[in-house]
């Protein structure tokens, strides 16, 4: 008789920034069932449809199994030697800024740490950026301007306790479904809880709302400046909090003096009544969470939008308390982990700053590295532009498919065609980006990798290896380590397990980080630096900081009213509403918005494998209001050409009455590989926020015609 050996292994879901815990049953070493971990604080046993169908998405079909150079299979020593030699040769000839890494919020913190260490401390450039630039870099810059640190002040538990939940630029029902379930539960438990959804499109999330504010696309700064004005006019300001804990109030208060209801209503295309209803609720509620996501961040004024929101929370003291705070929600499972290790071109490790010499010296001293980057590197859009101009000659892309996800596909494609040396580490054998790889390196993926991720509420959880990797696939950290060795950096990359890297990362976070129990830097997990391998493997999900003052983590970082600015006071930031970079015109009369579907993830290389996940939406589409389709002589399911000044796609038409007149929506998931004419990223230009460098992926002007 056949023997069945079953085990239950704890891990976390890779399909969004909620970071749900999952309990995986393996049968004879093969994952066979998944349930939500009942004790994981992110989900308390819940899963959404993507998490529930996780097992269907992890088979080995289509996996990249062997290292390849110029289309020929090679062994690992040959592949890593070749990558190391080419990178070293280009660096020797053209300097450290002639090479770049483009990484991903899909890789684990340990992978991110070692990639960042190699680029910033050993190659000596800050040319390492990540697809998280497309996700939340505006939120990072907004927090840093206000708090002096990239600190998310909230926890998911705040959603259970707030009186007023304001969702801005977030379709949580589709993009963060388990948090949306939590909101539904909170509302059911207490019908007095008010929910306001602010979004140009009436999305599925608006169904839960007491009010939906269909503001004009891009007018968020005006809306929140209007709120601040209303709070001042209606004596709803917490002067005591402002005086004790904030700076810059007088200037900011003066700057919003003209943002009265009439002016704001005009700027946002809302009625004064709609505005007043929201403003009154914010003024009267004792607690408020503003929950914001890509609709705020992916904008040419994304950072200002974040600060306009934060200003209102500071002005009312609604921060650092249960049920209150400006809460940026990340898209990817490990966007936060990437921030923590400094895996962005304008950050150093452990939330330190490249511009700060003390920080550069400290990191270099800790790493005992021969060099350290002296200035910020190229952010995503800039990075591919620099490849195009020949300034960057070699790029190593890890676990991401920029040809499909970056705006202005034509520019990115041209860059990869031109680039002297392109290395791609990926778990899949084929994707749009791999087409241009000189070297393909097979990487492990979820279920095979061991390491940590940090979710949107700063909670560090384990992802666990459940099964053997197929073919010769290796972990990203192993591949980077092996290349580092062959570049001559052996003793500083002497890691045998992801735990070695995690402990070093934890040690660095606490290195010279204040005395007397007060950390001068927010990100400090030094209490985790002594974990045994067993403790690392069994790590209980925990919210940072985790140090001698907060050995069990900390739920609300600013509960003591101390911020990480030199004065320890939060900063009001004076922000002025601006129009998006493009305006609809006679040639391009529509505004195209883009976003995710509930049942798919990124470019569908894994979720696209699941029949259950493909059931509801089988093909890409363009949403339009029915009467606008009629005006154009179009009917449902017609194939239409959608063209912007940057590129065009062909999509079947679907109707959505939730759109505003003149607005369209299309999902982001399809690539050249899965639907050759439907990669919507082609239509978006290279407009970025001037501070964060985050591209404006929610707004481009287009025209529509029958195909
Ligand atoms: Fe996974 Fe996100 Fe769904 Fe949770 S909400 S199960 S993390 S996709």
How would you summarize this macromolecular structure in one to three sentences?
Helices cover 31% and strands 17% of the residues.
The CATH topology of the largest domain: Rossmann fold
- Name the strands of the widest sheet in spatial order: 5-4-16-15-14-6-7
Count all strands and give the number.
26
Q: Give the number of domains.
A: 4
* Largest pleated sheet: 7 strands, mixed
Treating each run of at least 4 consecutive H or I residues as one helix, how many helices?
24
The N- and C-terminal alpha carbons lie at a distance of 61 Å
Shape: globular
The CATH class designation of the largest domain is Alpha Beta
Overall description:
The structure is a single chain. The chain is α/β, with parallel strands linked by helices and 707 residues long. The protein has 4 domains: 6-57, Single Sheet (N-terminal domain of TfIIb); 68-131 and 335-540, Rossmann fold; 137-333 and 567-571, Dimethylsulfoxide Reductase, domain 2 (3-Layer(aba) Sandwich); 590-706, Barwin-like endoglucanases (Beta Barrel). 31% of the residues lie in helices and 17% in strands. It is built from 24 helices and 26 strands. A 7-stranded mixed β-sheet has the order 5-4-16-15-14-6-7, sandwiched between helices. Strands 22-24-23-26-21-25 form a 6-stranded mixed β-sheet. Helix 2 (76-94) packs across helix 20 (476-486), helix 3 packs across helix 21 and helix 8 (220-233) packs parallel to helix 14 (302-315). It is globular. The N and C termini lie far apart (61 Å). The mean pLDDT is 96. Bound molecules: iron/sulfur cluster (SF4).
């Amino acid at each position: 008789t056949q023997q069945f050996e079953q085990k239950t292994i704890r891990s976390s879901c890779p399909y969004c920034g909620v970071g749900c815990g999952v309990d995986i049953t393996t049968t004879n070493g093969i994952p066979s069932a998944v349930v939500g971990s009942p004790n994981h604080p992110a989900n308390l046993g819940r899963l959404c449809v993507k998490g529930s169908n996780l097992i269907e998405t992890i088979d080995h079909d289509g996996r990249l199994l062997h290292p390849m150079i110029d289309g020929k299979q090679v062994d690992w020593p040959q592949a890593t030697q070749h990558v190391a030699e080419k990178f070293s040769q280009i660096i020797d000839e053209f300097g450290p800024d002639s090479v770049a890494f483009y990484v991903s919020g899909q890789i684990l913190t340990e992978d991110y740490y070692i990639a960042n260490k190699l680029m910033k401390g050993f190659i000596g450039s800050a040319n390492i950026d990540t697809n998280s630039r497309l996700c939340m870099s505006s939120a990072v810059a907004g927090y840093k301007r206000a708090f002096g640190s990239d600190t998310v002040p909230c926890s998911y538990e705040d959603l259970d306790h707030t009186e007023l939940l304001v969702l801005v630029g977030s379709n949580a029902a589709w993009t963060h479904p388990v948090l949306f379930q939590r909101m539904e539960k909170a509302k059911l438990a207490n019908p007095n809880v008010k929910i306001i959804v602010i979004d140009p499109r009436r999305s599925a999330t608006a169904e839960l709302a007491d009010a939906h504010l269909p503001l004009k696309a891009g007018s968020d700064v005006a809306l929140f400046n209007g709120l601040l004005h209303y709070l001042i006019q209606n004596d709803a300001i917490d002067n005591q909090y402002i005086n004790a804990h904030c700076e810059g109030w007088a200037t900011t208060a003066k700057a919003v003096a003209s943002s009265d209801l009439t002016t704001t209503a005009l700027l946002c295309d809302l009625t004064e009544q709609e505005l007043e209803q929201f403003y009154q609720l914010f003024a009267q509620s004792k607690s408020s969470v503003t929950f914001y996501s890509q609709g705020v961040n992916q904008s040419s004024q994304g950072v200002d939008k974040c600060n306009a929101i934060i200003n209102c929370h500071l002005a009312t003291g609604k921060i650092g308390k249960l049920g209150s705070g400006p809460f940026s929600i990340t898209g990817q499972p490990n966007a936060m982990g990437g921030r923590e290790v400094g895996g962005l071109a304008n950050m150093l490790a452990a939330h330190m700053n490249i511009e700060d010499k003390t920080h550069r010296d400290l990191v270099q001293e800790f790493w005992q590295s021969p060099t350290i980057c002296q200035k910020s590197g190229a952010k995503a859009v800039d990075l591919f532009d620099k490849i195009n101009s020949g300034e960057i000659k070699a790029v190593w892309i890890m676990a991401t498919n920029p040809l499909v996800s970056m705006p202005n596909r034509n520019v990115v494609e041209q860059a990869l065609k031109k680039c002297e040396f392109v290395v791609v580490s990926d778990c899949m054998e084929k994707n749009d980006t791999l087409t241009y790889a000189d070297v393909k390196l097979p990487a492990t993926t979820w279920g095979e990798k061991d390491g940590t991720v940090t979710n949107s509420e700063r909670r560090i959880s384990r992802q666990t290896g459940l099964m053997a990797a197929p073919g010769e696939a290796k972990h990203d950290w192993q591949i980077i380590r092996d290349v580092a060795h062959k570049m001559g950096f052996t003793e500083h990359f002497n890691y045998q397990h992801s735990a070695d890297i995690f402990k070093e990362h934890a040690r660095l976070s606490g290195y010279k980080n204040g005395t007397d129990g007060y950390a001068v830097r927010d990100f400090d997990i030094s209490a985790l630096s002594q974990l045994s391998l067993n403790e690392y493997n069994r790590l209980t999900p925990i919210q940072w900081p985790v140090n001698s003052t907060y050995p069990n983590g900390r739920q609300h970082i600013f509960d003591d009213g101390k911020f990480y600015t030199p004065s320890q006071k939060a900063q009001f930031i004076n922000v002025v509403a601006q129009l998006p970079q493009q305006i609809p015109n006679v040639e391009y009369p529509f505004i195209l918005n883009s976003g995710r579907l509930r049942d798919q993830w990124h470019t569908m290389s894994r979720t696209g494998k699941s029949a259950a996940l493909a059931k509801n939406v089988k093909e890409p589409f363009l949403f339009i209001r029915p009467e606008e389709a009629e005006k154009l002589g179009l009917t449902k399911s017609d194939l239409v050409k959608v063209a912007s000044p940057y590129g065009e796609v062909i999509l079947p038409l679907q109707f959505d009455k939730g759109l505003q007149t003149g607005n369209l929506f299309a999902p982001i998931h399809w690539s050249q590989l899965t639907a050759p004419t439907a990669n919507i990223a082609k239509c978006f230009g290279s407009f970025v926020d001037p501070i964060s460098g985050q591209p404006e992926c929610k707004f481009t002007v287009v025209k529509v015609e029958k195909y």
